[in-house]
Design brief:
Helices cover 89% and strands 0% of the residues. It is built from three helices and no strands. It is rod-shaped and about 70 Å long.
């Protein structure tokens, strides 16, 4: 069982990296209108970055909870329920 959790953690690391890259690229594409509208470095002030980071943390926590809930459910089904059905 520990082996599958280690494999799931490796997969989680790669999916987290992909999630971060996709999220920040999408965020810039999505907010590009505001960046052009307000121009210059106004969009780089601490308030905007803090809001973007807060949304990132919320979405990342949601992603993490769903991922680990699915992984632990699959592992428990594989190790606890399937062996009992085979008997």
């Amino acid at each position: 069982m520990k082996h599958f959790i280690k494999v799931a953690f490796k997969i989680f690391k790669y999916l987290s990296l992909a999630f971060m890259i996709i999220y920040w690229v999408y965020l810039l594409i999505d907010d590009w209108i505001f960046i052009e509208k307000y121009g210059g470095t106004d969009w780089l002030d601490a308030d905007h970055i803090a809001v973007w980071f807060l949304y990132f943390v919320i979405y990342f926590l949601g992603f993490s909870v769903y991922y680990w809930a699915i992984v632990f459910t699959v592992i428990l089904i594989y190790y606890k329920i399937l062996p009992r059905l085979k008997q």
